[in-house]
Design a protein that fits this description.
Layout lengths: L3 E2 L11 E2 L4 E4 L6 E4 L2 H8 L3 H12 L3 E4 L4 E5 L4 H15 L10 E5 L8 E5 L5 E3 L5 H8 L21 H28 L28 H22 L15 H8 L1 H29 L3 H15 L3 H11 L5 H8 L1 H10 L3 H18 L3 H4 L3 H10 L5 H10 L4 H31 L1
Antiparallel strand pairs: 1-2, 3-4, 4-6, 5-6, 7-8, 8-9
Length: 445
């Protein structure tokens, strides 16, 4: 059997070779399946776990796959021609093996560092390229759940077989992580009380640890304070929404924006003065928030938080209100990266301070709509909506249920429809992860 050049071409002197895929049709009726007999040999030549190749082919063919470790072969449901399997393998090589820069199969696959390894990186030994993989492809989820070891094989301890994590499993994992964070916070609080000046009056001294709790914002949680906040919440919400010039967040009634010209005719100079004062207040808050996010970008999260606290107290703002201004002044066409790295700690602290997480989810999704559909960077960000949502999801600012509910609810506004349409790949990714888990379980039966 003659070997093929990895990546295509017919140069006989090309040093990177692989065996052609060998497919074998088996079964009849509903039991039809295609076995990739030499999946292990192909994976070895590509320096990739054979399970990744088999899973990729199954995803591309819309089928369910299994892998037999003892035989070293993979199975894809349904009958598929060997030529089709080879075509999918070539596509897998292009997307998951070859270096995007030098086009050589010299890349090693690495998991992202930090507390949450949510990204997969390619590190090219030939040219030094280091970049992220296509995290929207379903194979990315499988790899994250079945990460490779130093030799490129799937490390022991990953989720078995299907490699999918159900919605319940993801919720359990997040709950466990939050419980771990709370335990760490309790330990840190004990240490602070034991240290000189650890417990005292006034605002808590804020550190750079992104696991600090919402106490940093000195939120009074007494019954009277909660009642007072609820009483003034709607007034504050309406004020900030008007100042930001955005549509009503809930969009329940799909009411059109007010005609400012008609309002001016009715109100005359008083309305002009009120509009001017509102715009002036908006600009002042925006400038203060901009200074805070600049500090955050410099890594000075403590200072940024204190500045936002001062702004919220001065202008009687809630955490959700501050989120709106941050989305206006902090993000550009690189919003996804800015959310997941540059301002991650600041956003996490602000989210923890929000008293009603469901309302915050709605506000954040409305802010995403405005950012992707109405900001100065909308031409670029509309296409990047899935990445922005995934960044917020990865740092636990958005829950899966909230995203799916927002998407399914739809919008009467043109901008809302456009943003949801752009977000569809990410929403499908969330939903298919659950469906894939059920499919794998059925296949095992």
């Amino acid at each position: 059997m003659s070997l093929l050049n990895i990546g295509g071409g017919d140069d006989p002197a090309y040093r990177y070779k692989m065996p052609p895929v060998v497919g074998k049709k088996e079964g009849i009726g509903n039991g039809k399946k295609t076995v990739i007999v030499n999946a292990t040999d192909v994976g070895k030549a590509l320096k990739r776990a054979p399970q990744y190749l088999v899973k990729y082919c199954a995803v591309e063919l819309g089928a369910v796959s299994t892998f037999d470790k003892e035989q070293g072969s993979g199975t894809v449901n349904g009958w598929h021609e060997t030529a089709v399997l080879q075509e999918k393998t070539n596509k897998f090589i292009k997307e998951w093996v070859l270096c995007p820069k030098c086009k050589l199969p010299e890349t090693a696959m690495e998991m992202g560092g930090g507390k949450k390894s949510k990204d997969i990186y390619f590190d090219c030994k030939a040219c030094g390229y280091h970049g992220v993989a296509d995290m929207m492809h379903k194979l990315a989820t499988f790899i994250l759940n079945n990460p490779p070891d130093a030799t490129g094989k799937i490390a022991e301890g990953g989720t078995a077989k299907g490699g999918k994590v159900s919605r319940e499993d993801r919720k359990a994992q997040k709950a466990a992580k939050r419980a771990g964070k709370e335990k760490d916070d309790e330990d840190e609080d004990d240490e602070d009380e034991a240290a000189p000046g650890g417990a005292g009056g006034g605002l808590v001294d804020i550190g750079d640890d992104d696991d600090d709790d919402a106490g940093d914002w000195a939120v009074d949680t007494s019954a009277d304070a909660v009642a007072e906040r609820e009483k003034s919440a709607q007034a504050s919400f309406d004020k900030i929404e008007a100042a930001m010039g955005s549509a009503k967040v809930s969009e329940d009634k799909g009411e059109p924006k007010k005609d400012k010209k008609k309002d001016k005719k009715k109100g005359g100079d008083d309305d002009d003065w009120g509009e001017s004062a509102l715009e002036s207040a908006r600009e002042q808050i925006g400038e203060e928030v901009k200074l805070a996010v600049d500090k955050s970008a410099e890594g000075k999260v403590d200072e940024a938080v204190k500045m936002l606290m001062a702004t919220s107290q001065k202008h009687d703002l809630e955490p959700n209100d501050l989120f709106g201004f941050i989305f206006d002044v902090a993000f550009d066409e690189n919003a996804a990266k800015q959310i997941s790295t540059t301002h991650k700690k600041l956003l996490t602290k602000l989210y923890k301070a929000a008293p009603d997480k469901k309302k915050t989810h709605k506000f954040l999704l409305a802010s995403v709509e405005r950012l992707a559909g109405e900001s100065a960077h909308k031409e670029v960000l509309l296409k990047k909506t899935p990445h922005v949502l995934k960044a917020l999801y990865d740092i636990d600012l958005l829950e899966e249920d909230a995203i799916v509910k927002w998407f399914d609810k739809g919008s009467k506004r043109k901008v809302g429809k456009a943003v949801r349409e752009a977000a569809e790949p990410f929403v499908k990714w969330l939903q298919e992860a659950d469906e894939g888990s059920d499919e794998d379980e059925d296949d095992e039966e």
